[in-house]
């Protein structure tokens, strides 16, 4: 039963069904007893308890609970350390880097990625070594280091060489963010288009909302500003603005479809509509009305 919960949490997260993924992860954690399951990794490769904590962390982030996500991944690290199981520790370090990245904590990402790379190099774990390099590359790119892009591509190539291809939209989004940070909008947009193609091809929905949000942001960044909005922000042409707004809307729709919360999408949509200075648009579409986000975590609703 524990292994069933473990695998359901993984597969449901991949499909973007994060509420169900969290439920199965929590049920797996409730079933887990180190006295009886401490050797379960001999069946699954990694410890199912550690893995359930990791996917619970992803679900917490997607559902609008970033602090609980961090607590959950720290629980994964603590359990892996107590088990003295290097592969499970590599898993926990990888997810810790991912959670910190989702929280936009680049220094913490690099710290966890560096630890993961050291461990996996010593132990000979190519799968998690590749993921560690991807995360390390993102952190470097955020600091303006061009080698970060090369690192991410090398990590992604090594990851695929293991036969893995899951969570491709997430990895491509990291590459897009890296290119954007380094001032390469065309390369960033190419990576995002590839991510969107994969979402439709593989029905992988975990990061769908964020991919659309990034697409809208990159559309805005790809065009020189054409004037100043009533909020004092520079705005591109109306045509580009409409295109960006479309992708912000798709990000919000994807969040609704998966019953998750992409607060950044709501905030960007709200600010962008305000920047247009078009009260008719704001009234007709109501980007951040309370009614449109009923059921989301208390305290997470953006201002209207």
Instruction: Work out the radius of gyration.
Output: 20 Å
Give the strand tally.
Answer: 2
Taking the alpha carbons of the first and last residues, their distance comes to 45 Å
Name the CATH superfamily classification of the domain at 1-103.
Tetratricopeptide repeat domain
Q: What's the architecture of the domain at 1-103 in CATH terms? A: Alpha Horseshoe
Order of strands, main sheet, comes to: 1-2
Low-pLDDT regions: 228-232, 277-304
In which range does the helix fraction lie?
Answer: over 70%
Q: Averaging pLDDT over every residue, what do you get?
A: 81
Annotated CATH topology of the domain at 1-103: Serine Threonine Protein Phosphatase 5, Tetratricopeptide repeat
Order of helices and strands: HHHHHHHHHHHHHEEHHH
The coarse silhouette is: globular
Describe the structure.
The chain is mainly alpha-helical and 304 residues long. Among the domains are: 1-103, Tetratricopeptide repeat domain (Serine Threonine Protein Phosphatase 5, Tetratricopeptide repeat); 207-304, no CATH class. Helix content is 73%, strand content 1%. The chain contains 16 helices and 2 strands. The chain has helices spanning 2-14, 18-31, 34-37, 41-44, 48-62, 66-83, 86-102, 106-123, 126-142, 147-161, 168-181, 185-202, 208-221, 238-257, 263-276, 279-285; strands at 227-228, 234-235. It has a two-stranded antiparallel sheet. A hairpin with a 5-residue loop joins strand 1 (227-228) and strand 2 (234-235). Helix 2 (18-31) runs antiparallel to helix 5. The chain is globular and about 65 Å long. The termini are far apart. The model is unreliable at 228-232 and 277-304 (pLDDT under 50).
């Amino acid at each position: 039963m524990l292994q069933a919960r473990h695998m359901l949490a993984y597969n449901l997260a991949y499909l973007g069904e994060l509420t169900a993924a969290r439920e199965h992860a929590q049920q797996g954690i409730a079933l887990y007893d180190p006295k009886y399951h401490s050797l379960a990794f001999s069946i699954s490769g990694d410890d199912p308890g550690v893995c359930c904590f990791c996917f619970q962390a992803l679900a917490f982030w997607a559902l609008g609970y970033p602090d609980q996500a961090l607590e959950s991944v720290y629980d994964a690290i603590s359990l892996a350390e107590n088990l003295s199981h290097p592969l499970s520790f590599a898993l926990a370090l990888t997810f810790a880097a991912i959670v910190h990245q989702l929280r936009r904590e680049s220094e913490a990402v690099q710290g966890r990625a560096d630890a993961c790379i050291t461990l996996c190099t010593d132990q000979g774990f190519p799968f998690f070594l590749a993921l560690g390099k991807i995360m390390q590359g993102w952190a470097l790119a955020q600091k303006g280091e061009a080698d970060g892009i090369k690192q991410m591509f090398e990590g992604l190539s090594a990851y695929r060489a293991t036969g893995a291809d899951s969570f491709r939209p997430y990895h491509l989004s990291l590459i897009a963010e890296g290119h954007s940070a380094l001032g390469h909008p065309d390369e960033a947009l190419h990576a995002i288009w590839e991510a969107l193609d994969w979402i439709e091809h593989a029905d992988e929905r975990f990061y769908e909302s964020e991919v659309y949000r990034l697409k809208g942001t990159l559309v805005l960044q790809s065009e020189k500003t054409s004037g100043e909005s009533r909020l004092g922000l520079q705005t591109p042409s109306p045509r580009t603005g409409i295109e960006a707004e479309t992708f912000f809307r798709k990000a919000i729709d994807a969040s609704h479809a998966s019953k998750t919360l992409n607060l950044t999408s709501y905030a960007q949509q709200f600010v962008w509509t305000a920047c247009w200075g078009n009260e008719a648009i704001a009234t007709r579409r109501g980007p951040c009305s309370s009614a449109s986000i009923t059921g989301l975590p208390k305290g997470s609703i953006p201002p209207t």
